[in-house]
Design brief:
Blueprint (H helix, E strand, L loop, with lengths): L31 E11 L19 H4 L18 E12 L2 H8 L10 E5 L8 E6 L5 E8 L11 E2 L2 E7 L7 E8 L5 H15 L5 H22 L6 H16 L7 H7 L10 E3 L2 E8 L6 E4 L13 E11 L6 H12 L7 H7 L13 E11 L21 E4 L7 E2 L1 H8 L8
Parallel strand pairs: 10-12
Antiparallel strand pairs: 1-2, 3-4, 4-5, 5-8, 6-7, 7-8, 9-10, 11-14, 12-13, 13-15
Length: about 425
């Protein structure tokens, strides 16, 4: 069974013939890992290795094999049925990706004080855009050089924990060129800032003018302002993680059965902080996730969550999970699986995940707990359902939240197939 990492940048793995348990031992790292392997064939009972048998690489996890990484394990090394093949990981060096890798290549020594060293990002065509590092303190930045007229619409520059946005004229007067500088302001936010800068750089690839580039940068910053305000560098709370996991379970295990990938992700409205987590043309679903051993109720944080006025059908999905170190999957693993299921549409998850509080740079924060689904139950909200409505709340009463006893919802229970048949534009056949 594969062993865990030992010391900084070193790990040892041993896999025996027929032993596939090592496939889930290692959490996928937040940055790519460049692997260098030594192969050692060991004879057993006097018989030589090298006969046909299961491939060694098939017994490794995706990140151990290097799937999708820069230096994957290659070849068709096989394990003899009579012996063992041991692979020793002799060196593992962290290999940064995206702008973090570009910043890592910038050297500030020998340069003047008070300016930046920089590398241009060729994929951005709308304006000269650079990954930069300040010579005074090695702090990193993303710099756009634009005509000053492109900055005319900036009445107030966005600011937040972790980053600062500033302008710097390259020529005197109202005309000429200027820099728009997005800089890391607090070192503890480096991982988040790297994700922010990568997100902006990807967005800028799709614009064609300097004015559009400035507007796109500011728009993305406002999204990240909200992220940093709500979650900072500490990530989501345990309750928020559980709630997000439940929504992803419904999206992955239920909604994708009846809607194409793009439509299913577009229907996920919870991260936009609207009353219902999923909204389609044919109905809405509010997901409630609990880890209680014997769940007796679910909480309603917004009185409009159980309001079905103007909605063709409204359902409650109660996801009950176990949280433990031996569970089936972590939150990042569930997201990886959903991305895989979405295929070419996986990038559409990025925006709602950021809004929900999840970014890949923080995935190691969520290596625990592991979740296992115990049950998924559905109830239809209609006349007689136990609830409070906005019209029933006296004037002056605000911020109403309450709990609904699950036992009181028994008469409103329905099956998954009933829900999916309602949500599907073409109906749903459970068989």
């Amino acid at each position: 069974m594969a062993g865990r990492s030992q010391g900084k940048g070193q790990a040892k793995d041993t896999v025996r013939s027929g032993d596939t348990r090592g496939a889930s031992c290692h959490p996928r790292p937040s940055v790519a890992i460049r692997l260098e392997w030594q192969w050692q064939a060991c004879e057993s009972r006097g018989r030589c290795v090298g006969h046909s048998g299961p491939r060694f690489r098939d017994q490794l996890s995706h990140w151990q094999r290097g799937d999708g990484l820069e230096s994957p394990i290659r070849g068709e090394q096989r394990i003899s049925t009579a012996g063992t093949l041991r692979a020793k990981l002799v060196r593992a060096t962290r290999h940064m990706t995206g702008l973090a890798e570009t910043w890592g290549r910038l050297k500030t020594s020998g340069h003047g004080v008070g300016d930046y060293v920089r590398l241009r990002l060729p994929a951005v065509a709308a304006c000269p855009t650079y990954a930069a590092k300040r010579t005074t303190d090695d702090s990193v930045a993303l710099i756009l050089e634009v005509d000053k007229r492109a900055l005319a619409g900036l009445s107030k520059l966005p600011a937040s924990k972790g980053f600062e946005l500033s302008t710097s004229a390259l020529s005197p007067g109202r005309s000429g060129r200027a820099r728009l500088i997005l800089a890391l302001s607090e070192p503890e936010f480096l991982d988040v800032f790297s994700s922010l800068a990568d997100d902006i750089a990807r967005t800028l690839r799709g614009v064609t003018s300097e004015t559009e580039a400035v507007a796109a940068l500011v728009d993305r910053l406002r999204t990240w302002q909200e992220f940093l305000r709500r979650f900072g560098s500490q990530g989501m709370s345990r309750d928020a993680c559980r709630g997000l996991y439940g929504e992803l379970v419904f999206l992955r295990d239920c909604l994708l059965k009846v809607l194409p990938g793009t439509e299913a992700v577009m229907a996920w409205a919870g991260p936009r902080r609207v009353p219902h987590d999923f909204q389609t043309r044919h109905g809405s679903v509010e997901v409630k996730t609990t880890a209680a051993a014997t769940p007796h109720s679910f909480r309603v944080a917004n009185i409009r969550q159980l309001d079905d006025r103007g909605i063709s059908a409204l359902y409650i999905c109660v996801v009950t999970v176990d949280e433990s170190e031996g569970g089936k999957e972590t939150l990042p693993e569930a997201i990886d699986g959903l991305r895989s299921a979405l295929g070419a549409h996986a990038k559409r998850l990025d925006e709602p995940l950021i809004s929900a509080g999840y970014i890949e740079a923080q995935r190691t924060l969520y290596d625990s707990p592991r979740y296992s689904i115990r049950s998924i139950r559905f109830f239809q909200v209609r006349d007689g359902f136990p609830r409070l409505l906005e019209s029933e709340i006296p004037n002056g009463v605000e911020g109403v939240s309450f709990a609904v006893a699950i036992a009181a919802c028994a008469d409103f229970a329905c099956s998954e197939s009933e829900v999916l048949e309602t949500l599907s534009p073409e109906g749903y056949d459970a068989d």
